[in-house]
Amino acid sequence: DGTELTAKPKRSFYAARDLYKYRHQYPNFKDLRYQNDLCNLRFYKNKIPFKPDGVYIEEVLNKWKGDYEKLEHNHTYIQWLFPLREQGLNFYAKELTTYEIEEFKKTKEAIRRFLLAYKMMLEFFGIKLIDKTGNVARAANWQERFQHLNESQHNYLRITRILKSLGELGYESFKSPLVKFILHEALVEDTIPNIKQSALEYFVYTIRDRRERRKLLRFAQKHYTPSEHFIWGPPRKQKSEGSKTNKKPASPVSIPNSHISKHKKPKEPKNTSASGSSAGKITEERKVEFTKNEEENDQDEQEVNCDAVGQNNSEKNSDTDTSQLSKSEEIHDNTDRKEDASHSKKDDENLDNDCGNHPGFVEEDLCKAENSSNDTSSDLQDNLDKDTLSGGTTTKAKDELK
User: Fold this and answer.
1) Where is the Opioid growth factor receptor (OGFr) conserved domain (predicted)?
2) What gap in Å lies between CA 81 and CA 84, rounded to an integer?
3) Could you give the CA distance from residue 167 to residue 26 in angstroms, rounded to a whole number?
4) pLDDT tens digits, the chain, 402 residues: what are they?
């Protein structure tokens, strides 16, 4: 017996499959056994009694309330009070349909009685509904009822059905407060310890919102004893996450390099394409593009060197063209370095925020950024030599035209 009590619990495959279908592939049946005669809605309208007992909803709510013996030993009313889109143990009860659910939500009389039935069952368990948002607390008779709930485990199936029905009939938000209350009583207060397995296997997984389920599982993992037996949030995941955080600082080193390379690559083909296109236009369309090139050269001369405007010789013009090109490329190089420095600073700030302010990685990134900028400046100077040659050919072409 001692080994069985200390054995690590195992998850139920049936429970996981059933509740997964409830959340994703509901309903669980393919074809309805009966046509949609709205029997569940008509029962809540007090027009028909539930079978096989032949009792109307008003009698259940008025005369059965507080009769804990009847509520405990009768097993046919729960399928009618909390209908689902699946077959229960009472084969006289009919499954809900999507059309019936929509009509049920529109009927105030049915909704009012449904909430009264929910309150009646909560009181049977020793719980009371305290507001319209679904928050619950201990009832006045909680000690007696909790002791009974801890011993009569067939009521755990009823709680699962009640939670599913709340989600079907528009009260999904009522589930999380009830499940949180049960987990607190089972794990923290230890008033109903026998319910914790069903709460973690069934109750939590009736909640469709994934974030709400995770909150409840984190709360349960925090208070579950022994902690190594908590199988719904394995510690392996925590270890893997810890190893991932240790490996994270290695990846950001390549981020600024890739960013700088992306920033630099578009700059190089622009210079080469500009020189190549200017030479091609002059050779192919000399008469048409001659005046445009003169205006562009005049503008460049005024922006870079104002003293070069008064020179008229062809050799002086070629010298000024090459000097202007070198100066303009130096200006572009300086602006590129400033941009790279600003980008590297932004990347370093982002890395500090993501990696927890690791100065060693930031210094490596800055060094690599400077090296990459020096490499790109040398590439730009190589292109300058080519541009001067092309500039020389363009001046020669101009002289021939003159």
Assistant:
1) 35-238
2) 10
3) 12
4) 444 455 677 888 999 999 999 998 777 555 555 556 899 999 999 999 999 999 999 999 999 999 999 999 999 999 999 999 988 888 899 999 889 999 999 999 999 999 999 999 999 999 999 999 999 999 999 999 999 999 999 999 999 999 999 999 999 999 999 999 999 999 999 999 999 999 999 999 999 999 999 999 999 999 999 888 899 865 554 444 455 555 544 444 444 444 444 444 444 444 444 444 444 444 455 544 444 444 444 444 444 344 433 444 444 444 444 444 444 444 444 554 444 445 444 444 443 443 334 434 333 444 444 444 445 445 545 554 444 444 444 444 444 444
CA 344, CA 341: separation in Å to the nearest integer?
Answer: 5
CB 189 within 8 A of CB 181: no
SS3 call for 285:
coil
Angstrom CA distances, 86 to 20, 93, 168, 183, 203, stand at 14, 10, 11, 27, 17
Contact 365, 348 (CB under 8 A): yes
In the numeric block, which tokens belong to residue 184? 């607190």
Tokens of 254: 């390549």
Sign of CA pseudo-dihedral 298, 302, 305, 310: positive
pTM, entire model: 0.58
Domains of the chain, residue spans: 18-223
Please tell me the number of Cα atoms within 13 Å of 254 on its side-chain side. 3
Report cis status (omega within 30 of 0) of the bond before 49. no
